[in-house]
Design goal:
77 residues; alpha+beta; Ribosomal Protein L24e, Chain: T; two-stranded antiparallel ribbon; 22% helix
């Protein structure tokens, strides 16, 4: 299943509503991207699957700080 490696974002269940207001179940998938990110603290690249909102936060505060916020050890990824 598609899942973000750090935040754990997954697909959500929602309703598709027709013109006649009939509701049927459907999935909402997050925008997940697989990226190779450089970690200066480790001196190497790590390959992660992250949502695009996660990637924007990583750009803003850094990968190590973002992973610590969720209790994930980057050196084991």
């Amino acid at each position: 299943m598609a899942k973000s490696d750090i935040t754990g974002v997954r697909r959500k269940i929602a309703n598709k509503v027709s013109h006649s207001n009939i509701k049927t179940k459907r999935w909402q998938f997050p925008n997940l991207q697989e990226r190779r990110l450089f970690v200066p603290e480790l001196g190497r690249f790590v390959r992660l699957t992250l949502s695009t909102s996660d990637l924007r936060t990583v750009d803003r505060i850094g990968l190590v700080a973002f992973a610590q916020r969720y209790g994930v050890d980057v050196s084991k990824l």
